[in-house]
Design goal:
alpha/beta, D-Maltodextrin-Binding Protein, domain 2, single chain, 44% helix, 2 domains, binds D-malate, 11 helices
């Protein structure tokens, strides 16, 4: 008798999940962005969810929950109801670097999520305040290595993209500037433009407009090729720096346990958004890289997360980086 009841409950549960996915979504969806509004992760989230909302027929509302290099917002999202109504925009930091820097991290990037798909590749650019006393990477490195105690570096909190790529940069050029934490590189960029902080390694989608506007300096982009939106910014290799090539990425996740049908609807909507001309135009104009079809699948994202955790852990440990 007990077996029959359990079987019926299981069937009922499956039916409910199926029914839930069928009607999904029936109300607005919240996307948690774990950094301050206006920064790169927020910009990518607002661009891709615009078209996703239209496809899903419900608004995706962005909620900025900043703190601890993005791990505060991601922890909250990971622990939310796995019903498809709370999703998140994670990235190379929250789902790659964070485990190496937070011994008591409250989530496992490789286990506690239902990957939805990659949203955008975001190459890293080495940028500085307009008044920085150097005009190219060589001059910058010369000044930095001789005056590291006088130079400060902005970042979006331990484990963020700007922090982990910054730590990696400092270990490659053997400099130890003072690290200044912000709730995102949106606010950090404001201080860079105000000449109150010296430099940072940030995602192109945040800094490209200010570089084009001449409001900040860009010494190099950390990719094998120049970006089409910053044709005058050399690659690190062209500028004479070996061993510093790094690109970040932003991706959509749902909490583990989100029904597979719901995950599929969200993934299809993201893929459709990335095929949309307006979405592609808005991301590309900021230097964002549109993922290929094979890179966009939930399975590909799961593999990316696993490889990034494996890549960043030794890099950050070797650089002596620890959680503050
Ligand atoms: C942001 O949106 O502020 C960034 O993604 C922060 C970072 O990880 O550097």
């Amino acid at each position: 008798m007990k077996k029959v009841v359990l079987a019926l409950a299981a069937v009922a549960g499956l039916a409910a999940t199926g029914a839930q996915a069928q009607g999904y979504p029936t109300r607005p969806i919240t996307m948690i962005v774990p950094f301050a509004a206006g920064g790169p992760t927020d910009v990518v989230a607002r661009i891709v969810t615009d078209n996703m909302s239209r496809t899903l027929g419900q608004q995706i509302v962005i909620e900025n929950v900043a703190g601890a290099g993005g791990t505060t917002g991601i922890t909250r999202a990971a622990q939310s109801q796995p019903d498809g109504y709370t999703i998140m925009m994670g990235h190379m930091g929250t789902h790659g670097a964070a485990p190496a820097l937070y011994p008591n991290l409250k989530y496992d990037p490789t286990k506690d999520f239902a990957p939805i798909g990659l949203a955008a590749g975001t190459p890293i650019v080495i940028v500085a305040k307009k008044d920085f006393p150097a005009n190219d990477l060589k001059g910058f490195l010369d000044y930095l290595t001789k005056n590291a105690d006088k130079v400060n570096m902005a970042h979006a909190g331990v484990g963020s993209v700007s922090h982990s790529t910054g730590i990696f940069f400092n270990s490659v050029v053997k400099a130890k500037p003072t690290m200044v934490a912000y709730r995102g590189t949106g606010p950090a960029l404001n201080d860079l433009m105000a000449n109150t902080v010296d430099f940072m390694t940030d995602q192109i989608v945040n800094v490209a407009p200010q570089i084009q506007g001449g409001n900040i300096k860009a010494f190099a982009i950390a990719t094998p090729e120049r970006s089409p939106v910053l044709p005058n910014v050399p690659t690190t290799k062209e500028a004479g720096l070996e061993g510093y090539e790094v690109s970040a990425w932003n991706a959509v996740f749902a909490p583990k346990g989100t029904p597979p049908d719901v995950v599929k609807k969200l993934s299809d909507a993201l893929m459709k958004s990335l095929d949309d001309e307006n979405t592609k135009k808005r991301l590309s104009e900021l230097g964002g890289v549109i993922p290929s079809n094979t890179e966009r699948t939930p399975e590909a994202l799961q593999k990316l997360v696993e490889s990034e955790v494996a890549r960043w852990t030794p890099v950050l440990k070797a650089a002596g980086a620890t959680a503050e």
